[in-house]
Write a structure and sequence with these properties.
Helix content is 49%, strand content 11%. It is of the alpha/beta class and 203 residues long. The protein has a five-stranded parallel sheet with strand order 2-3-1-4-5, sandwiched between helices. It is globular, with a radius of gyration of 16 Å. The C terminus is likely disordered.
């Protein structure tokens, strides 16, 4: 049985081979969304919003409730559905625009599940460890923490960022740390992608 055959159908990643995917991960309020937006604008491509934020903001607005264990799989399903839909759209673009920048992924959701609950649903873990991205970015904590309805860890960003790095390393996921101001971050990722594109892509 291959990896995809073991994953729940609504958690399978469907990325056309022509699309270069970049997952942007990291602690809260570290500029993930801004970086994805800026990179999509630079390449004339698309970016995937963080479904967890959309889902939990709606839950907060409606009921003033925060995330629970029972929300995890619904969030994962929403995230991958958004990613799959936008990947199809990117595949129809000219070659130079075929980048998809993902504001988090199910791997990030798995990390947070283990951080908050010291556990993660098996289906989510399997999906997180099977999904593939051509480049994984870990955003540095050198941005100001900005409060909102959902953020709750202004004093733990360094610890959470280290946990992300350890989880990526433990699961043998190569990643690239990106910090600096807004323009520096974009330039670093552009340079990294340029170097990658000079090498044959994995089949």
């Amino acid at each position: 049985m291959n990896g995809n055959a073991a994953i729940a159908p609504n958690l399978i990643q469907h990325t056309p081979k022509s699309v270069i995917t970049v997952a942007v991960l990291g602690a809260e309020s570290t500029g993930k969304t801004t970086l994805c937006r800026d990179l999509a604008a630079y390449f004339g491509s698309l970016w995937v919003p963080e479904y967890m934020r959309l889902y939990l903001q709606a839950k907060w607005d409606d009921k003033q409730l925060t995330c629970t264990w029972d929300d995890l799989l619904s969030i994962a399903q929403g995230q991958i559905a958004l990613e799959n839909e936008l990947a199809k759209q990117v595949a129809q673009m000219p070659d130079e625009n075929r980048y998809l920048f993902c504001d988090t992924s199910v791997f990030e959701l798995m990390v947070y599940a283990n951080w908050y609950y010291d556990d993660c649903p098996d289906a989510l873990t399997l999906a997180a460890l099977t999904h593939h991205y051509d480049l994984i970015i870990l955003t540095d904590i050198d941005t100001p923490w900005v409060a909102d309805d959902l953020r709750d860890s202004p004093h733990q960003r360094e610890e959470i960022s280290a946990f992300f790095a350890s989880q990526l390393t433990d699961h043998q996921q190569s990643f690239y740390c990106v910090g600096g101001d807004r323009s520096e971050r974009v330039q670093k990722v552009v340079e990294r992608l340029s170097k990658m594109n000079q090498l044959p892509r994995a089949k």
